[in-house]
């Protein structure tokens, strides 16, 4: 009996191990364990056995059943793995084929620099103020101590609005007559609308009737204004130095103040920043007197707000004083990021925008840096 | 304003070199724009003697010279008629650059004869007009020495930018005064008649004073004049000619050169009339309507009664203080002259100059304000120069009117230097600075600016004077006081909306452009036309303020496509300029391929109106607009495709955006082919988010999962998908959380839509009866729109 069982086991296990497909394996299972299966038949014989005989044969026959069942399961797993391998191998694709690129957009350098300015000055307590681009004569000139016949008006190459000639004139505070020639009228609007202390920057579009390689009839400026008690030229110098160091992310920014003239500041100073030559390119920072050569670049106009301007805004110049500065944003962008043609800023050439533009994720932050 | 270092020396004793002078000028606010030494350019040219001159064997008009430039004879071929043995001239050796010819000399063979350099004419060296022959120097000129040294051309020219507030620095003497105050040298004394070479004797009045008067005391408060009879006008002496040439003034004749010289030297414009051309008294008066004058620049100017002119009995001879007239200008034949030294009102000069669009050296000075106390000395000086250089006898002086001195007195507190200027300067030092600039400072610190400083207006100006001379670079930086702790946010809600919209657009693949705020009228027309037109546009293409951001973006898109771009996604965030004001707006344009052809997707695809809608909704959502509640309505405007454009509104009146395909006529006007879609977002219409702090509303995700049911409807032809979906969503507001069209079928007149409805159970799962009831409500609600469940 035992020999018979062993022979049957060998025969069944051999068939299972050599089953090459799941249907063959199923046939093996039916032959062994199906209702008429050979192991099933053996199990049925147990009922007719004497207890003594059953005690001997029972474990042997059950052992055979378990061995066959386990072998089938093992073989099934193996066959399934083979089938999966075959399928996966048939599913191979050429991963060197190109994928459809998601379009990537850009932020214009002017916007990026405006965001950088807002971030730097926010840390110094400055809010961002805005004002109209179609401005009144009064806000753009008169209140800024630029009277009608002042040579500075001719200097500004002002765009005038047609059909407004007959309106209120230089003292009209309501009717727009010019495209603002600078962001300085935002100083006036801010002082009229807010009580000091005031700390603002005002970035925006400005216009002058000028068009050549380095001038465009539309450009961008940022104005800065601080009105408080006890503000001096020293505060102005520190603020601009701090700003330029933060903006260019260099500690070796060297400023040169030059006395100058703006009708709305007194004393007035133009601010030059030192540049040095690195790898043949002008780089802001370092002392121009150093070994590699260098020089000064004019970047800002500034000064202490003229007492007449403070008075024009209804404040007492004996109580309040402060400083103001103005700076070209396009120029700041060019100095920091190295563009050399101002006109390209306003062309909308996507090749230029993709090259000089910034990722949407390049949000200037104090912790991450304001340059990208 | 240009002057030479030598000219400065007439007024200032100093030892400094040109670079030190330039640094000092910039430091006091007279920004140096350039330094040019004409001697540098002529450094290779030397004084040389022609030893012999023979005829060229091959050419009649050429000679073969033997030239000694200090180191032996050299053979030089020369074509100048005046070249001859014994002549002393200027020689350029091979290697020398000849500025007037723009060539660098080299050894050359001229008609078979070797030539080792060149004898030069004045024009070739750009030191004069003479080209009749080579330069002839005195026979005793030292052979072999540098010509520029010999001719005094080693005199650096300094060009400074004079700010509009500094009339005094429109003359060399004013510049010298600033430098002296800044410690660079000592100001030399000056009196009328002073010349570089010494002093000209003052003219003794011998003739009767000329008849002049002013009938326009506002425009010309003072008109001083002196006549000189029997002058002989001609070329000025060399020193005067080279002075003027060095600073870019063309020498004309002695009389004209004298006026230019005094103007540049002392900032005092003058005018000299040929008295022989005048008839009767010379009068300063307002022009009469219709009068005109041919000015010295040869152009005719129409005058108005707002303008001050100088006229005689017959005609206008001078646009007062701006430019003289041709008729009475001096010529080589002039014998009797009248020298005018007048004071014109700066504001009137500025207005007249602006109205005539006429600039001149005289206007620049008069509108800044010349020294009203310098009429007598100026006139005496000019007349002395005329007599000295041109001969003749002077008349007595006529003084018509009086120049307003405009003296102002300010109480000055020296501590202002510190409290305003940030620089502590001892009061004595401040007094010294002010006095050296010509201010008078009383014991009680009452300060009176000098008559030549019309610009100084108040104590802040005095601080500026003191600081700029002491050195503005010495102001030490002082930190702005700051609030302790981390900086507080400063951005306003509208600024936040702009920032989010901008960065969202870039994140969605759009490139940010910045385009002109002004357009042509034609570009603006389909977008409502420009409400604001420039009176003085730079060109017709940049004439009206844009009523929309789209024209600029369309033009940019066209440029990009023309340059070969396959796909253009541009946006801009800026203002539209409407009659009622400036409105912050985001515009975007999608042109070219939406998707390029590909191995997966097949053919390229163009943009359509739904791409525009997707951008509009995404950007509005990013900007914080409640996009779930928006209505799609028509009427985007005439620039848009009438059937494929619309507006997104929050309620019927608040338009947040226009979107869709653009009208083919508009695209044609911009030279654009194919479909171009666009969006304009009206950022100021987006409602600000309510300030509820950082805390969110309480929320727990539902425990039970949602149930989805699909419904297929046959709908009437005119029914908008949105209307059907809204009706369904309203069928059971508690259970239905979403409804979405997921299939659309249109054939002939039959239109059917399949809608997926999402139901969210609350505490208990839906029973079959619940679901049946909800379905019935959905079908009933849809039926009200005319939709029927498809069988």
From TrEMBL, chain A:
- SUPFAM superfamilies, alphabetically? Class II aaRS and biotin synthetases, tRNA-binding arm
Q: What is this protein called?
A: Phenylalanine--tRNA ligase alpha subunit
MF (Gene Ontology) = ATP binding; magnesium ion binding; phenylalanine-tRNA ligase activity; tRNA binding
Outline the extent of the Aminoacyl-transfer RNA synthetases class-II family profile domain: 111-364
Q: Which PROSITE patterns match?
A: AA_TRNA_LIGASE_II
Q: Which Pfam families match?
A: Phe_tRNA-synt_N, tRNA-synt_2d
Q: Which branch of life, at top level? A: Bacteria
Cofactors demanded by this protein: Mg(2+)
Which Enzyme Commission numbers does its entry carry? Answer: 6.1.1.20
Subunit organization: Tetramer of two alpha and two beta subunits.
Paste the cofactor note.
Binds 2 magnesium ions per tetramer.
UniProtKB/TrEMBL annotation, chain B:
Q: How is its cofactor bound, per UniProt?
A: Binds 2 magnesium ions per tetramer.
HAMAP family given for it? Answer: Phe_tRNA_synth_beta1
From the Swiss-Prot or TrEMBL record, give the protein name: Phenylalanine--tRNA ligase beta subunit
Question: Which chain positions lie within coiled-coil regions?
Answer: none
Any one Gene Ontology BP term: phenylalanyl-tRNA aminoacylation
Q: Which family does it belong to?
A: Belongs to the phenylalanyl-tRNA synthetase beta subunit family. Type 1 subfamily.
Query: Which reaction(s) are listed as its catalytic activity?
Result: tRNA(Phe) + L-phenylalanine + ATP = L-phenylalanyl-tRNA(Phe) + AMP + diphosphate + H(+)
Q: Which GO terms describe its cellular component?
A: phenylalanine-tRNA ligase complex
Compartments, record wording: Cytoplasm
PANTHER family per UniProt: PHENYLALANINE--TRNA LIGASE BETA SUBUNIT, PHENYLALANYL-TRNA SYNTHETASE BETA CHAIN AND LEUCINE-RICH REPEAT-CONTAINING PROTEIN 47
Location of the FDX-ACB domain: 702-790
Q: Residues that bind Mg(2+), according to the entry?
A: 455, 461, 464-465
Its EC number(s): 6.1.1.20
Transmembrane intervals: none
Q: What keywords would UniProt list here?
A: Aminoacyl-tRNA synthetase, ATP-binding, Cytoplasm, Ligase, Magnesium, Metal-binding, Nucleotide-binding, Protein biosynthesis, RNA-binding, tRNA-binding
Q: To which species is this protein native?
A: Sphingomonas aerophila
Residue ranges constituting the TRNA-binding domain according to the UniProt record: 39-148
Named cofactor requirement(s): Mg(2+)
Domain B5 per the UniProt entry, residue ranges: 405-477
**Chief location bin:** cytoplasm
Subunit text: Tetramer of two alpha and two beta subunits.
Q: Which GO terms describe its molecular function?
A: ATP binding; magnesium ion binding; phenylalanine-tRNA ligase activity; tRNA binding
Classification of source organism: Bacteria, Pseudomonadati, Pseudomonadota, Alphaproteobacteria, Sphingomonadales
**Record's signal peptide:** none
